Amino acid sequence: MTHTEEVQHYADVIMAMIKQDQESGQVPGDVCSWDELDESVDTADYYRQARLLGAPEGLREAVSEEVGRRLTQAQGGRWAVTWSRADGSSHDISRGTGYATKAEAEAVGRDYTSVHGGVYRVHAD
Length: 125
Description:
Elements: H1 3-24, H2 34-40, H3 44-49, H4 57-74, E1 79-84, E2 90-92, H5 102-116, E3 119-124
Helix pairs in contact: 1-4
């Protein structure tokens, strides 16, 4: 199995476990990132159940990123925030992976402009 195939395989296995946990109410249905998932459950349990604990660190990280990407897509995709100064110059203030929900991106834009002034724009990434 190639690295990409391994990542897809383990992501499929973990997503099936997450879906079961969502159906049982253990994980919120609107969880939209690996970090947010970790607030509901111990994500290391997914690694254990998928038999990923002994896997190379790079593989676990790639699986986590893929699961996070899938969770984000399930909630409508990635959102980005662009901040503009009064002089018209613009800067992307999104984190590297963007934001899972529009509401999260809006909150970041509001917080940022309350400190730095200017205006923000939320857009699909």
